[in-house]
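Re: the 322-residue chain
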Amino acid sequence: MPQARKLSFVDWKSRLLQLFIGLLVFTFSLVPLKADEGEKKEAEKAEVEYKFMRVETDEDDQATALQTAITRYQLERPGKEEVRVDLIGVIHIGDKEYYEILNQQFMYYDALLYELVAPPEALKQGFKANERDGGNIVSSMQMMMKDALQLEFQLEHIDYTQKNFVHADMSPDQLFQTMKEKGETPINLFLRLMQANATMQSKSNSDIVGMAMMATAFDPPDIRARKLKDLFAREFISNESFLNSFGGDKGFSLIHDRNDVALEVMQKQIDKGATKIGIFYGAGHMEDMHKKLLEKYGMTPVKTVWLDAWKIEPVKKATPAK
């Protein structure tokens, strides 16, 4: 893989956005949000045909893998070659093999659209994660989660220097302006997130994540990682639609408006003649993108391929002494 240069976020807005996005997603990922039975049934109905993350389990209901989907959509054009668009939902911390498979998959596309809220000048340099950036609280939290789960960072293993990669996201200025127009200040959104968490927690009898962290504190690292992967994988699935509904009727800038930008870039690539397009975004974006591909762009989903983002070896049960 070519050596990518480190991305320098010289713009203070970019630094603030990276911090806020990281804190928001990290907090959302770790706090168990339990829906009531009615909400669960509605979610199950909506996910019968189209899901973008799932957990595979064994006969003992132990998780064996957290999987993400590559879902293909097709656009028929009379007199022209059909267009294929793949939604490639990603988990930002995963197995090394997971990212190696994605790198191979990316070579298939005429254009691979990717997410990154960053100033334009930074995009010209290429970028690489600085995993030991002691001054970045988000990096520190990510390192803690990565180490606890014995996983790898996406930015350390995805080759963003490939010629077919196309930036398909907002600049910090664009995102700040959109958030301002919707009244989405970082503090406002963070308080709303905490309020939503408190409401959801009141419906639950216990803090499952917190209890699991305490219960595994004295386990060997490999055992602890397997137990926590099982727990976090299930939490990711149960929370998959939360951020999509967080913005209300106006939509949520960090999801819906960034998705609009990505799909506008997709249309520009189609207009230029691209017929094989991949959209590489966080899995939490895919529910909204799916709806827009069907309703706004007239595409039809044709197949889904599942990738193991985390392979989870089930914890062996102790054999009773005879």
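DSSP finds 13 helices and nine strands in the chain.
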